[in-house]
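Backbone geometry:
***
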Amino acid sequence: MKKISLLLCALALAGISYAQSFNFGLKAGLSLSDLSYNQESGISAKANPGFSVGAFARVYIGDKFYIQPEVAYSFSKIEFDVNAENLIQGTVVDENTKIFNESRQGVSIPVLFGYRLLNLKVANLRVFAGPEFMISTSDFEELTKNVEGFESKPFGVSGMAGIGVDALMVSLDVRYAYPFTNDFVIGDQKSNFQGWVVSLAWKIF
């Protein structure tokens, strides 16, 4: 009986140690992005607030450093305002410009490297940075058919940096994403998303 008790204690301690070094959970986020374009080109674009849902894993290396891979589905609405001169011949235009409302959706895969600044057991403060890989599943059919030289990129890479707070099983992150690649090309104009992402997560374990 004593040996069994010792074994159970050892397993419990191992479980506690494992839980402290590894977390897995679900998360949801709100993105507030800007879409860059040269206004003199006759094309402007505005990204509405978007959302994302997904999962994350956090693996601590020692007491301070950690790696956090994530995967999430992201969605946002974009409004393109295009001058008639940029449209393919034959496109119906009511006035001098035509507005296209498109949706951008895809799979986001950040890989973040973090450092725990403060650890109070029930709460901690973190900083992190790392790349984000974006796989777009949108075809932007209307823009492709009607806008001269429009091309959407199916794959993109951004850099992310931010700060996070954990309180018990809840995690709040605020991060800024800066693009390294272009999301859209229209003629000579190249455009990309950049902006803030606020996410709330629940650690399952």
